[in-house]
Amino acid sequence: MTSQRDIVDHLFPGFLTHLTTLQGFHEHKILLKPSITPDASLPTELAALYLITNGFDIQWSVMLANSFYQVGSIKINSYIDASSTNYWILDQDHFGHVLMQDDGKILYRPLYHEPIELCNSLSHYLRLSYVYLGIPGWQMGFTPFGCPPSARDWLTFYCACPQIQRYTKERRNENGPKEAAKRKAWSMGIPSDTCNWWSSNTSEFKAKPFNWDTVQKMVRSIKSNDKIVLQQ
After folding, report:
1. What is the pLDDT of residues 186-209, one digit of tens each?
2. In this structure, how many other beta carbons lie within 10 angstroms of the beta carbon of residue 15?
3. Are 208 and 123 in contact (CB under 8 A)?
């Protein structure tokens, strides 16, 4: 029988299993909301996601030196929370907002600054989110300001991606089209050794959209509750 865990594993293959291998891993929680029939005006992929779940939040935490830390969260807002005048607001934290345009492109708007293009699709954004384990502030690595110190520390510890710091340092002295092209290439060409649980074929990683229809069929076999909380 199909379970909610099956849906999460289809959207984020190997992610929950990978979390359990991290040093100090404590627990993960998944809040999966019932699906809705979205407005026809939504971008195609966002509409497909809402037919699966009306937003979700995957949180994970660690216990280090007898202290509890909420380290990461991968979240997509519900339809109501995402609705806005100029953009669809997919997520937000104290570093900025993740936005979706009507053409499906994903932008990131740091607080008090203009949005910058982050990636080309919702599929790409979700994959980037789990590559960087939903660590708050990872999106700042794609801006001229670089990741905040807390994000750099967690990313270095858990994602083995020192290119975040290296690239942030290099780009501070770069401007214009060259910097923009480098940002795009870097965001789409993440080294395969960053995480060992996603495909090493980066061209497929960046180009292949999710098979939304398959997940929607899985959802139809599950009885929806107001809120479903899963724990491994």
Report:
1. 333 333 333 333 333 333 444 456
2. 22
3. yes
What are the distances in angstroms from CA 228 to CA 34, 47, 77?
8, 21, 15
Query: For the segment 63-73, what is each residue's pLDDT rounded down to a tens digit?
Result: 998 899 999 99
Q: Give me the half-sphere count of Cα atoms (radius 13 Å) on the Cβ side of residue 132.
A: 26
Helix pair 176-188, 163-171: axis angle to 10 deg: 170
CA distance 5 to 120: 27
DSSP alpha helix (H) spans, 70-143: 79-82, 122-131
Residue 70, both tokens: 């909420």
CA dihedral 88, 138, 213, 78 (to 10 degrees): -40
| Tokens coding 10 | 């289809």
